[in-house]
Amino acid sequence: MKLKVFKSDASSFVEQEFSNIPVFEGDKGVFALKETLVAYQANARQGNASTLDYGHVSGTCKKPFKQKGGGRSRHGTFKSVIHRGGAVVFGPTPRDWSLKINKKVRQLALKRALFEKCSGGNIVVIEEFAAPTKKTKDMAAVISKIFEDGKVLLVDDQFSDDVALASRNIARIAFCETAQLNALDLVRYDRIIVSGKGLDTVLARANKE
Q1: Is the dihedral angle over the CA atoms 148, 124, 166, 185 positive or is it negative?
Q2: What is the pLDDT of residues 79-93, one digit of tens each?
Q3: Which positions ≥6 away from 83 have C-beta within 8 Å?
Q4: Which of 84, 113, 117, 144 is the Cys-Cys partner for 123 at CB 3.0 to 4.6 Å?
Q5: Which domains does the chain have, with CATH numbers?
Q6: Residues 19-28: pLDDT tens digits?
Q7: Cβ-count burial of 200 within 10 angstroms (0-12 exposed, 13-18 middle, 19+ buried)?
Q8: pTM
Q9: Cα dihedral sign, 55-59-60-64
Q10: Which of 183, 125, 116 shows the shortest CA–CA distance to 154?
Q11: How far, in Å, CA of 23 to CA of 165, rounded?
């Protein structure tokens, strides 16, 4: 599969063949990708939403008024769910939302997400990330030469301080090191720019048996 390889200043590019990019036919890996994305998002949930049921509401259990003769509905306590400040019926309680992802399923999902981005032309390679001027406007100009719009994820083995400082205030740019890259990162961002060394690392991870 061919990918565009840009110079560090994005002044020009060449198309280069990468034989070790995963290739899929049909729907293979789509279900694994879907399950993995659901699991990643579920595992990010805190699960600490909580409401007070009848047994936890603070207040007296004394009957507020007599049963009959008042012309009102019968009430045993103001802790009832129908009263303001009372209990909540069927409300959320703390729970564990986490889901288990098998290693092979997670790797298959990474391969499928990588294939989808590459086949759609939404991944490009840059020789290296560099910020010689250390200025945000210059880094933004380099990114705009490659992708004019959309959310962009920069991927490298390790980012230098100069690149991080020059890019961190650009709203549509995010960073990710290759060791932490996963299928959710590849899907949630519109465009991916990966360094040459970073791509080698990502492909080594994806093709690891």
Answers
A1: positive
A2: 998 888 899 999 999
A3: 75
A4: 117
A5: 2-45+102-206 (3.40.1370.10), 47-96 (no CATH)
A6: 889 899 899 9
A7: middle
A8: 0.82
A9: negative
A10: 125
A11: 36
